[in-house]
Write a structure and sequence with these properties.
Length: 165
């Protein structure tokens, strides 16, 4: 008899304090639809209908882009609040593209493609140009941004399936 197994994606950065909760992702009866649990929050991810999904939620790439945008916005809001700056709102638009890698002119590197995330951010409030420049810099230092540009190690392992309920 075959033992039923599943892959559980779960994690919390080591030494990260309390900014991340464990996240679990579980497939369900709808093709490609996933139920995501993060602490007390439950939501869905899916693929678009043109690739066989049901479009029951954002796809994994959209969730990643949303994570970066939300983290940048929250980090900026926290910074402005600490400094008592008149930030009334912040909006980030995040997009993804594959672009040609830029190699130095004296490099023998092959031409290749790289992933690029573009973050366009705007601030609402009576902020000076210097304050806006500083907030833009702070947005680029949010924890998700730092994780994405660092060398991340992902360890995936097979674990026994939980008992059916």
């Amino acid at each position: 008899m075959h033992e039923k197994t599943s892959m559980l994606i779960s994690g919390q950065p080591q030494g990260s304090g309390n900014y991340a909760r464990n996240v679990s992702v579980k497939s369900g009866p709808l093709r490609y639809a996933q139920t995501i649990s993060a602490g007390p929050h439950v939501f869905r991810s899916d693929e678009a209908s043109d690739v066989g999904g049901n479009d029951a939620g954002p796809n994994a790439h959209e969730l990643l882009l949303a994570s970066l945008g939300a983290c940048a916005n929250i980090t900026v809001q926290m910074y402005a609040q600490r400094h008592q700056w008149p930030l009334q709102g912040v909006q980030a638009a995040v997009s993804y593209a594959r672009v040609l890698a830029e190699n130095p002119p004296d490099s023998d590197a092959k031409i290749g493609m790289i992933d690029q995330l573009q973050v366009e951010i705007s601030f609402v409030g009576d902020l000076s140009e210097e304050q806006q420049a500083r907030l833009l810099e702070i947005a680029g230092r949010c924890p998700v941004h730092r994780m994405l540009v660092s060398q991340v190690q992902i360890q995936t392992r097979l674990v026994p399936s939980p008992s059916p309920e």
